[in-house]
Design a protein that fits this description.
Elements lengths: L22 H15 L3 H13 L5 H13 L3 H10 L6 H14 L3 H11 L6 H17 L10 E13 L15 E15 L4 E14 L7 E14 L2 E14 L2 E15 L10 E13 L8 E14 L2 E14 L2 E3 L2 E3 L3 E13 L4 E14 L3 E5 L2 E5 L2 E14 L4 E14 L6 E13 L1
Antiparallel strand pairs: 1-2, 1-18, 2-3, 3-4, 4-5, 5-6, 6-7, 7-8, 8-9, 9-12, 10-11, 12-13, 13-16, 14-15, 16-17, 17-18
Helix pairs in contact: 1-2, 2-3, 3-4, 4-5, 5-6, 6-7
Length: 440
């Protein structure tokens, strides 16, 4: 679930209060900072404006007031104050925030110019890194200006080593209660080609492999290829993607998926003007199980929505995922097992930059699963019937260190705890991975 951190929000509000003779102005300034930290931006704005009217005049007040204007959507006022800060010692920071204001106001080309100013070599390293990430995100989003007419190719490579305390080639099946070290490799590539002012075509592919030291039976391999048409509507991107993938478990073919996905993403979210980004997707796939996995034949449907918000330096992303499987299921004599669950999953991920090169993060998720038909099996000569329902809790920690602009080292620990109404599907699983990842 973790991904490379992207900074989208404003820098933290300044907590510096410069001593002034008027104690009322100082109190208004301090109250404004307190209200801002509680997320009450209109009240913070009122207090900062009161401090200014009472004679408080400092770069800290100007900066804090500019941030509250941004948070309350008054972009012209925020821009006017950030322009005042261009003459001070924090010129690069002012350039960067002017870029954020222009971006929020829909002036993408102007935002790009401000970010380029704050990405100059003489700017502080932290500001330069933030600006470079914004410029990379603008290129990735391919807005409807001259940059959208350029082809964009990108590659991703990751190799890692780790340990799995409960190896399970098919995670929703019975746990193995066996631990093993493993090695994994991911190679991916994306090519985005514009075909008109508003349309572009995107091709991408992924190769994934995971090999365990305890034998090949649980080794996993996946190959995927997709193509999408994407159209930009003002601040929204909508697309239709077709794709196919094949997975192997050990030496055996597990399943092949062929399907379509409709998706959308934007930096402006409906029903909320404080989120910094959101996306949604609806997918449907036809599934064909391998020769030994005919029970997996059928269809697979999914709906997912994501939203992200920057709280000062902290990036928080939340998601909801609904998934429905309609499979053939497995039956042999009196034994019947449904492989057709309906999943509901909620999750939250937070990433915090400790320094210019080091970031840490945490994630938590809960998934509820209800299987379509009751399981059936013989227990001490008696036929037992029970509908399977699972609750899986997941918790993870991550730390990543950027070696260069292209390469980073990631440490990730993930814990899953599943409780099922059918005891054989209960399990606990710890996974720890150290990986080297690069973007080209």
């Amino acid at each position: 679930m973790f991904k490379t951190l992207r900074f989208v929000g404003l820098l933290a509000i300044s907590a510096v209060v410069v001593a002034e003779p008027d104690q009322s102005a100082q109190q208004a300034m301090a109250t404004g900072i307190e209200q801002f930290q509680q997320g009450n931006y209109p009240a913070a704005r009122q207090q900062f404006e009161a401090a200014r009217e009472l004679g408080h005049d400092s770069p800290a007040l100007t900066y804090n007031l500019a941030v509250t204007y941004y948070k309350t959507g008054d972009y012209p006022a925020a821009e006017a104050l950030f322009l005042q800060l261009l003459q001070g010692p924090n010129q690069a920071l002012a350039h960067y925030n002017l870029g954020l204001v222009a971006l929020a106001d829909g002036r993408t080309a102007e935002a790009e110019r401000w970010f380029q100013e704050s990405a100059r070599q003489e700017a502080p390293e932290t500001i330069r890194e933030l600006a470079q990430r914004q410029l990379a995100k603008l290129a990735e989003d391919a807005p409807s200006d001259s940059s959208s007419m350029k082809s964009i190719a990108q590659g991703y490579l990751a190799t890692g080593l780790g340990y799995d305390s409960n190896v399970a080639g098919v995670p929703d099946d019975s746990p193995s209660d066996r631990g093993s070290f493993f090695a994994e490799l991911v190679a991916a590539g994306t090519l985005s080609q514009p075909v008109s002012e508003h349309w572009r075509v995107v091709w991408d592919g992924v190769i994934y492999g995971q090999d365990y030291t305890r034998g090949r039976a649980d080794d996993t391999s996946v190959v995927q290829a997709r193509a999408a048409g994407v159209r930009r509507f003002d601040q929204w991107e909508l697309g239709l993607r077709a794709g196919a993938s094949r997975a192997w478990l050990g030496n055996d073919e597990l399943e092949t998926l062929v399907g379509l996905s409709l998706f959308g993403r934007s930096g402006v979210c409906p029903l909320s003007d404080w989120l910094s980004g959101c996306s949604w997707s609806v997918s449907a796939d036809q599934v064909n199980g391998g020769p030994d996995y005919a029970a997996y034949d059928g269809q697979w449907y999914q709906f997912e929505v994501r939203a992200e918000q920057n709280v000062d330096w902290l990036l928080v992303e939340a998601f909801y995922r609904w998934q429905r499987n309609h499979r053939k299921d497995f039956q042999q004599d009196e034994f019947f097992a449904s492989v057709s669950p309906v999943h509901h999953e909620l999750g939250v991920e937070a990433i915090y930059p400790v320094g210019p090169a080091l970031s840490v993060g945490a994630e938590v998720a809960v998934r509820h699963s209800r299987y379509e038909d009751p399981h059936q099996w013989l227990e001490q000569g008696t036929l037992a019937t029970q509908r399977r329902r699972d609750v899986r809790r997941e918790f993870g920690l991550m730390a990543e260190y950027a070696i260069s602009r292209q390469w980073l080292v990631r440490n990730q620990w993930l814990f899953r705890d599943q409780n099922s109404r059918i005891d054989r599907y209960d399990y606990r699983r710890h996974t720890y991975t150290v990986s080297l990842e690069g973007v080209f």
